[in-house]
Amino acid sequence: MSAGSVPSGYEVNDPGYPIPQENYLTNSKGILSWAFTLDHKRIGMMYLVGVCSAFLLGGLLAIGIRLHLFAPDGILFNNGLFKWLAPDKAPNDIYNQVFTLHGAIMVFLFIIPSVPAALGNFLVPVMLGAKDVAFPRLNLSSFYLWVCGAVFFVMALLASGLDTGWTFYTPYSTTTDSSVILATTGAFVLGFSSIFTGLNFIVTINTMRPPGMTWFRMPLFLWATYSTSIIQVLATPVLGITLLLLIAERTMHIGIFDPEYNGDPVTFQHFFWFYSHPAVYIMILPAFGIISELISVHSHKRIFGYRFIAYSSIAIALLSFIVWGHHMFTSGMSPITTIIFSALTFSVSVPSAIKVFNWVATMYKGSISLTTPMVYAISFIFLFTIGGLTGLHLGTLATDLHLHDTYFVVAHFHYVMVGGTVVAFLGGVFHWWPKMVGKMYSELGGKISAAFVFFGFNLTFLPQFVLGSRGMPRRYATYDPEFAALHQMSTYGSLILGVGLFVALFVLLVSLFKGKKAPANPWGGATLEWNCTSPPPFYNFDRPPVVGDPYEFGNIEWDAESDRYVKVEPKRQIVPSEKPADSPAHASE
Amino acid sequence: MSAHENAREGYDFAHPLPLPLLAGTFVVLTMLTILTVAQASFEFGSIDVLIVMVIATVKAILVGAIFMHLAWDKPFNIICFIGSFVFVGLFIMFTLFDSRATVKDDIPILDDGIVTASAEK
Amino acid sequence: MATTDAGLASDAHDKPGHGHSDHGHGDHDHDHPSYLAHHFDTPEQQFDSGKLGMWLFLVTEVLFFSGMFCAYAIFRSWRPEVFEGCSQFLNTKLGAINTGVLLFSSFTMAWGVRCAQKEQHKLLTVMLATTLSCATVFLGVKAIEYSHKWHLGLLPAGLFSYDPANLHPEGGPNYLAWICAPFIAITIGVAIWLVVSFLRGAKFQFECAKPLFVVCLFFFVGVGLGTILESGADKEHSSHDTVAVSDAHGSEPGEGHAAVEGHDSHADAVASTDAEPATDHSTDLALIERLASDSTNTGLKADLEARKMQSELASGGIVYDVVDDTSATVAHAEDNVLRPSRAGVFFSIYYCMTGIHAIHILAGIGVMVWLLVRSVRKDFNHNYFGPVDYVGLYWHIVDMIWIYLFPLMYLIR
User: Among A234, A266, A271, whose Cβ lies nearest the Cβ of B87?
Assistant: First the structure.
């Protein structure tokens, strides 16, 4: 290619350079160009497809659980079909396996990689203004490790199921006949995948920032991803060794966790929760990042308390390492330790509350456009607040002794994980979908899906708070008839939630074929990803991006003529992000 | 090629360590190993573990600071590495605190006895 | 910091055709040298990224091992007498020698990084080969340690079958031969490669195969060294033949007995002055003295000193106080040490920690072979020595973990 035909900003010398006007989706073709791609955007898209498939599988299992619990004696797995499918298993065994696989698949295959690996891979380098992540090959290998882990889980499902619960507690996990080793190997491999992603992002954010991109000019999504990555790097190895020791315990009876050989099951729980409590923040922190972006962009107003949100992400990441004991209040920990952990647990609520207050303050007097992503973001704030506050009941030692292992816990973490992370994930997908595929979706369809999800979700899990506080234990296949009405409400709710998710999927898939072409900046965002075309070119930017304030909306306006947001005046000069811009629109802050 | 690159920014950043420093570190490390083996024949009671761990930590610091040239490295890398030990400390501290507080290691003297010949054959 | 510097340089890329003249380097036509990945702007940015990535990886390694150190701490604080008793089964000599070998390999690795930075390609290859040789010696010694313990039935809790009355259970597999088999196969493979590449005149391949063959041989040096130290005076120093080694190994003199007898005497006479261990020490001493006289190994000499001191102490009548447990009497605790229900956990943790450490050594060998091939190819220069540096960091942390493992496992009193 001759130098003359290339617009400035391109590097002609690079052999991997695509033809201009092509985007990352079209610059090379064929299955192999995807399978061996080193492009972070393609890897992110492959992750998106992967985690959504896992979500579908886990979701179907969830529907199975709810349908079974429709009647006090169970319905679904009593059906003759399951007798025919698994002749040697009682309905209750099937139920145990279904809820275990639901949990394990949702946690390890879906939620943990959902936002960081799928959206994060796509967005981190683009938001940062970099060409790619620091280690593209590691990035691809991380995706294939995810696939490998998923294969192990499916093998566990097909071999003899898994009935330990996703927590693999000993001694049951060392004695059960189900395929614990396959599943733990899968989780071990997925741990590596997660570590590689986190490691890559930390290095990328540290060393690949272009000139002008200072730490405090980074979008808050990057701060959240960075905090997540810290947890991934620090906590996941401990899961690795725990699962490895569990495998050794099953095969060689090393007597560390197994009481039969004078091991100590509480030690297993310490090991497991040292990872898995921080892992809860791996799941929710990136969602916080998404919401920070969504609230600010769709309120067209500078994010309130930028530094507080940024620091609170880091604070949550670090604090998450000293509260794991609150999962073990009833496991036989010493009383003094339970008191310490209970006290420490409350510390996490401070940075979480800071975020919620800042989001609400951002919306205050903003010009909110109720787009689909914004509807999701608002429902996130509502649901996450309920989930977070009920967490305080569980962190309190005295109430937890009553609520432990009841449906209250189930409802609490579903409010955080589904009401929080999944809703934020959906909001994020709707927000960046135009950027990812270059097509606009139907706003109406999107909002309908959000309404279904919100309504269905609350109908599913609000009754479970009541069930739990009235004493319905979790993980039971049958229950007392007095709980029937609430369980039935919950089952109806889960079906509505399922419909909402399918509507969302449908809306997005239809947009691929029928959607109109997306402009570069459909929402009026100020972060760097809206500076490149939709979808972005192979190296993300046609010219090196000029890094400005990520939350300066004063110079972005809706242009009705071209039906898109445009920059109104080139006054966009680098304003220090910590000070409010000098434009009058922001004087209200 | 290298002569040209020397003048450019982002090039020529290598920092070779002097050989005597490396060799000296190795000698000191070997001496410390001898010391740690030697001290094992004395009886120090409960501070015994402490002594051993202090010697090991001195050795680890030497390896880290000089062989891994952490002493000349970027502050962020140092923070990362030191930070990992902080988290290891948290992990072991809490877990050990709990397991010592429970004192539940009451292994019954079961029928397992001191293994008899039949166990293996 | 670095990124902003790097970013400034990237401006030169923006206008193709101008970039080179800006710098006045007409003679090289790439802003990106071949060793610089396309998404980095300068070699320094690439190096910093790789280095930070490596440090983060080391952080994950530290936390990975922390789980086992945590298990160690818990069970040692619960059962100090078990750890003390079982630690006697570990051969301090072998542990000390392996420590020395790893420290030396760390030194040569650090030297290798220096060579890469100074573009001393030949010396770099030598340094990498030396480091690799130390790694294989380490594994050779470890093979002896493991096979010896497996033979005695000193296994993890569930498989623990140690029986003081029957130290040589018949019919067990020849563990040493099984461990050595893959190494023998690899050695033969490398030897064939060496010969073929020599005959075909493939100079590059020959240059690679030569050091690798030496590296392979050093595994058997390690096995030989371990055998001598483990099994006593009647072994030939130069015994590289694994079959002979394992046969001789079967006769089972030396350390195993000494430790066991020591135990028995503890159990029998709690307050005695330990006459029997003292004699064991003196026989050991004679053995090591002899070995140290014909070996240049410093570690061995150090050990000799320690042993001398120890035997002096023993003959001076210092009671070898093994138990520091408030709840149990000495005899009671001794009685419990060798029950599988208790002793097993020590060996579980021992095998988990040293085993995973050995797996890390194997992984290190793998990447260093790759480095060695690249160093023969002269891939590294003063702007691109990252891979050597990163592998070096990895190798040092493996060493660092051993620095902690050695006293925690081998030197418990």
Answer: A234
Do C171 and B60 make contact, defined as CB atoms within 8 angstroms? no
- Please list, in sequence order, all residues whose beta carbon lies within 8 angstroms of the beta carbon of residue A328, skipping any fewer than 6 positions away: A266, A269, A270, A273, A338, A341
Q: Which of residues 7-36 of C touch A (CB under 8 A)?
A: 7-8, 10-11, 13-17, 29-32
- pLDDT tens for C283-335 read 444 444 544 444 444 444 445 555 554 444 444 433 333 333 333 344 444 45
Q: How confident is the model at residue A458 (pLDDT cuts 50, 70, 90)?
A: very high
Do the chains contact at B115 and C163, CB–CB below 8 Å?
Answer: yes
Task: Give residues with Cβ within 8 angstroms of C212, minimum separation 6.
Answer: C129, C132, C190, C369, C372
The CATH homologous superfamily to which domain C40-251+322-410 belongs is: Cytochrome c oxidase, subunit III, four-helix bundle (1.20.120.80)
Q: Is residue A366, in this structure, part of any structural domain at all?
A: yes
Minimum distance, in Å, between the CA of residue C336 and any CA atom of chain B = 8
Could you tell me the pTM of the whole model?
0.84
**Mutation choice for B interface testing from C29, C31, C55 by most B CBs within 10 A:** C55
Helix then strand then coil, in percent of chain A rounded to 5, is 65, 0, 30
Q: Which of B87, B90, B107 to mutate to test the interface with A (most CBs of A within 10 A)?
A: B87
Summarised one tens digit per residue, pLDDT across range A480-536 is: 999 999 999 999 999 999 999 999 999 999 999 999 888 888 898 889 998 888 889
Range of the domain at A97: 35-586
Mean pLDDT of chain A: 89
Q: Phi/psi at A556 (nearest 5 deg)?
A: -115, 125
| Structural domain total, chain A | 1
CATH code of the domain covering residue A145? 1.20.210.10
B94 touches chain C (CB under 8 A): no
Cβ neighbourhood burial of A4 (10 Å; 0-12, 13-18, 19+) = exposed
Q: Does A262 touch chain B (CB under 8 A)?
A: yes
Residue scoring higher pLDDT (B109 or A212): A212
Nearest to A8 by CA among C9, C5, C17: C17
Residue C64, token pair as written in the block? 């990975």
Say yes or no: B95 contacts chain A, CB-CB below 8 A: yes
ipTM score: 0.90
Confidence of residue C341 (pLDDT cuts 50, 70, 90): low
3 state DSSP class of C358: helix
pLDDT band at A540 (very low <50, low <70, confident <90, very high): confident
A234, A236, A238: best to mutate for the B interface, most B CBs within 10 A = A234
Which residues, 6 or more positions from C236, have their beta carbon under 8 angstroms from its beta carbon? none
| Confidence band of B111 (pLDDT split at 50, 70, 90) | very low
Interface of C with B in 267-296 (CB under 8 A): none
| Record: contact A271-C70, CB cut-off 8 A | yes
Whether A130 is in a domain gets the answer yes
